[in-house]
Amino acid sequence: MDDTPTQTDALEQLVMSRSFREPRIDLNGKSILITGGTGSFGKRFVETICREYKPKKLIIFSRDELKQYEMAQEFSPQTHSFLRYFIGDVRDEARLEQAMRGVDVVIHAAALKHVPIAEYNPFECIKTNVMGAENVVRATIKCGVRHVCALSTDKAANPINLYGASKLAADKIFTAGQHMGGADGPIFSVVRYGNVVGSRGSVIPFFRKLMDQGSDHLPITDPRMTRFWITIEQGVNFVLSTLAMARGGEVFVPKIPSMSMVDLAHTIAPDLPHKVIGIRPGEKLHEVMVPSDDSRSTIELEDRYAILPAYSGELMARYVSKGARRVADGWSYSSDNNVEQLDAPALRELIGEANAA
What we know:
Layout: H1 7-17, E1 31-35, H2 40-52, E2 57-62, H3 65-74, E3 83-87, H4 93-99, E4 105-108, H5 115-120, H6 122-143, E5 147-151, H7 162-181, E6 187-191, E7 195-196, H8 203-212, E8 218-220, E9 226-230, H9 232-245, E10 250-254, E11 258-260, H10 261-268, E12 274-276, E13 288-290, E14 298-300, E15 304-307, H11 313-321, E16 325-326, E17 333-334, H12 344-356
Parallel strand pairs: 1-2, 1-4, 2-3, 4-5, 5-6, 6-10, 7-9, 8-12
Antiparallel strand pairs: 9-11, 10-15, 13-17, 14-15, 14-16
């Protein structure tokens, strides 16, 4: 019997081995603040810091007292003396400044991110996602923060809904923050990635809920639809590695696999039929993480791409001298043209990793 790995096996091993753990920023003895700290990403980030580092302070900044109370039952300041729970809203610049005094590293994860809700409540979306981003940038500069990393979304590339447009605006605000802060200001960076396996409100828990309720079908918006996939642990690692390698103003995009929604539904529930319900307002058939118009300023690294800020010839030269290569003019990174496509075994392994982590 031939034991030579197939191309699919090799791709699966490549996808699953990509942990994004290197390089790694040293957060020992540092003061860290995370906005939106009680969300899916925030909880996993806090868990990782508690497990792997000994920071001076880790400030969990969010506006929901109940979520903070519940999170403190799991991550207690009595057990982890460096933890601080701080009620506040990114809409309030003065409160951000108060929370950021003496802080070295800021992770900005707070956002209103439900697409239909953002469409129905546009002013609220803008206040949090755009004005909140501006407040974070101003506060980090005023408080002398050294590293700032903002979480973006694939919906920010060529946006067609308000949520995506607001996150694109936020991305631009953070990359522009590099110039606003001057030579002695913070190092700003943005991470942009796709759907998180198993996160709150995502499609996999939704499908499982329907199965538990005895549904006789799974709803599919369009059989052609594809999406990027990443685990929450990979997302946290990607942020930590981005903090270590950012030089200022980059948007970092991980190399992650894609999968069609039909294949995903077949993997989750092989015996359930599908019902096509049509694309919802603001949805795309395929998500893009690097638009073709950004190709001229995009470089490829071993496990990620980086969209460099405008007029960054010196930064481009620095990356190229370290082994990065420029992507082809007109190239784009989309969930339908991605060469790394998940099959059922690889998805099940991703789900298993997400559940075990």
